[in-house]
Amino acid sequence: MLMKELKNFIMQKNIVDTAKQAMQRAIEHELDLKSLFPLSATSSATFHIADFGCSIGPTTFMSVQNIIEAVNHNNNQASTTKLPLEFQVSFNDQTNNDFNTLFRSLPAHRHDNYFAAGVPGSFYGRLFPTSSLHLGSISSSLHWISRVPGELTAAGRRDSIQCTGLDEDVARAYSGQFTRDMEAFFDARAEELVSGGLLAISALCLPAGAVLAQTGLEEKLKSFYLPMYYPQAEELEASITKKRCFSIRKLVKMAPPSPEKSQKLIQTSASQIRAVSEAIIKQHFKTITPDSVDLIFERLKEKLAENMHAITSPTTLHHLEVFILAKRL
């Protein structure tokens, strides 16, 4: 499982890099600052960005910086008076996220008009006041669903510690939970985004017909599931447009990173895997000791070194990486 997550983090960094140009082009064509700030030609205008599922960085900072650069470029290219923009950036993640680490690594070189804040809570519910966001961004986080489907734990079903797709009943339960979660996510964002606001989504999906490989388990793991589901790309698209609150303005399928780039990313990925997985492990295995947790992730580092070739091989990266820009109607 952790090896698969490593590949996902590598792809997440690649998504941020690849999505930069798509983001700039999309914002240039879809963001109308004059309609968002009709009365702010001379006074300061606050552009509110929310980054959902921020974890502890650093890719989240890169993603936000790409957005700010794109908005500034849009502002500079305006045919009329340039707006005096300030940026309020809200970084969101679960309450157990290490926000201290996140803000200690906040880029020191950010501009004077870039203000940061943390907003703890699940992005499957409301986090901001009505019509208060101008742009929301979520990168490689929507496969973390809100909960393990209750029918699985109640029935003691076992496919794997995550949804591999090999058991149809398990896959159906996960797909149902994903559908409910996506409805909640887009309902919340529809309330929070202003009319004409944008929602940038970078996601890991599965190509049509693909399933995850099955993972071997020990006895202690029989009641352990991860709340993680990789949708078909079509599932995600349907969730966005279902209630006609959003229209899809841009959809880009991205190439996987090169083996050389992947090797560099591996060096910084272990800490990100721990940031996502450690709290889940501790919550389920309540008697696990800190030394045991350290040992798990030390062994992960060893496995990374042993399996470097397999991890970086393009033939093993089966996820479909997509960038979607949706506009609030």
TrEMBL record:
GO biological process, one term: methylation
GO MF entries: metal ion binding; methyltransferase activity
One Pfam match: Methyltransf_7
Metal-binding recorded as keyword: yes
Keywords: Magnesium, Metal-binding, Methyltransferase, Transferase
Highest taxon of the lineage: Eukaryota
Protein name (record): S-adenosylmethionine-dependent methyltransferase At5g38100
Organism: Linum tenue
